[in-house]
């Protein structure tokens, strides 16, 4: 990702049969990094971070669907980085084996315990970078986004995609909650760059203009 001020770096991997986008964001002054959505290829994530000189400080989960958590058993073996997740997704997290079976995915090893609960408007940090937790339910009961206001950047999980939104026909999904979450996203600046859980990056301005779901559904 373009970073003219050289204060941060973003690493992106696309993993698994559902082509899930997972990320790490690092503060280049402190070399501290967080991993956002441990959906797979955990060893590659750790190796890539080490190669670039970044220290994994935490794992932040946007939600607990299987394609976003499948790498947690492996990463927990090699790292003691604490895991953050919203408590409303705990039932989904506990049902990970059933989720894996439903989507034909493999979940090797037991899931680690969640270390810290996320809540709306919580302030998080990685090095000098600051993020706000946005509670954005609808795709799942505990979906969140991580909003870096100073960077004009949102890690949105599966709430909004380029031209679409996350599914609302899954267990725990809610059409009404998704509508409310999309309304909340409309309050953010048009210039906000969105890194979603699937597909290409976009901006909220682009989605406000062209995403039909932002116009109502």
UniProtKB/TrEMBL annotation:
SUPFAM superfamilies: Metallo-hydrolase/oxidoreductase (SSF56281). This is Hydrolase. Residues 19-198 form the Metallo-beta-lactamase domain. Keywords: Hydrolase, Metal-binding, Zinc. GO terms for molecular function: hydrolase activity; metal ion binding. Its cofactor is Zn(2+). It comes from the Bacteria. Transmembrane segments: none annotated. It comes from Lujinxingia litoralis. It holds the Pfam family Lactamase_B.
